[in-house]
Design a protein that fits this description.
The chain has about 180 residues and is α/β, with parallel strands linked by helices. Helix 1 packs across helix 8, helix 2 packs across helix 4 and helix 3 packs across helix 4. The protein has a single domain, classed as Rossmann fold (3-Layer(aba) Sandwich), CATH 3.40.50. Helix content is about 50%, strand content about 15%. The chain has a six-stranded mixed β-sheet with strand order 2-3-1-4-5-6.
Length: about 180
C-alpha cells in the first residue's frame, strides 16, 4: 500500500482523535501542504464553526463541508472534520481520490484531549456520534489506534504503514 505523490492523504475520525496535529506532522514528514477542511469552511463562511452551527444550523455546515471536501487539491494532507467522511458524497469522492486514514480514539482519550466540550458544537454527543459514525469510518483505507501515542508517533506509523509492503503493526488495520 503505497501513497502516490499526487494522491491526497485524508485524516478522518472523531473530535479529539488528533487529526489536525497529526496532519501537520504528516505534512512535514511528506513535504506536503496541509489543508484543514474546517479552516476552509470558516474562510468560506466568514465565521467560526460554532457560529455556523448556532446561526445557520448543522445542515448548512454540512453543505459547506461537502463543498470544501470536493475542492481539496490533489497531493495534500487533508484534516477532515469529524463528520466529513460520513457524508455519502464526500466519502465516495475521498475513497477514490485519496488515501483515507481513520484515527481511532477512545472516549476517555478524546475527553482528556478536548475537555468538557472544547468549544465544539457536537462534543456533548460524542459517544452517540461515534456509535453512529464507526461503521462509516471503518470504510477508510487505513485505521490507526491513537490512544497513548504522541501525534508524531501516529504520523510516523502512518508513513511507515503506507510505505511497507505488508502491515505488521497490530495498531494499524489496512484496507485496500
Amino acid at each position: 500500500m503505497s501513497l502516490g505523490s499526487a494522491e491526497t492523504l485524508a485524516l478522518a475520525g472523531m473530535m479529539g482523535s488528533g487529526k489536525s496535529t497529526v496532519a501537520r506532522h504528516l505534512g512535514r514528514l511528506l513535504g506536503r501542504r496541509v489543508v484543514s477542511v474546517d479552516a476552509e469552511i470558516v474562510r468560506a463562511a466568514g465565521k467560526p464553526v460554532a457560529a455556523i452551527f448556532a446561526e445557520d444550523g448543522e445542515a448548512a455546515f454540512r453543505a459547506l463541508e461537502r463543498h470544501a471536501v470536493a475542492a481539496l487539491p490533489a497531493g495534500v494532507v487533508a484534516d477532515l472534520g469529524g463528520g466529513a467522511f460520513c457524508d455519502p458524497a464526500s466519502a465516495a469522492r475521498l475513497l477514490v481520490t485519496a488515501r483515507v486514514v481513520f484515527l481511532d480514539v477512545s472516549a476517555a482519550e478524546a475527553a482528556r484531549r478536548i475537555g468538557a466540550d472544547g468549544g465544539r458544537p457536537l462534543a456533548a454527543r460524542w459517544e452517540e456520534l461515534r456509535a453512529r459514525r464507526l461503521p462509516l469510518y471503518l470504510r477508510a483505507h487505513l485505521r490507526v489506534e491513537v490512544d497513548g501515542l504522541a501525534p508524531e508517533a501516529v504520523a510516523r506509523r502512518i508513513v511507515e504503514t503506507l510505505s511497507a509492503p505488508a502491515d505488521a503493526d497490530a495498531r494499524c488495520e489496512v484496507r485496500s
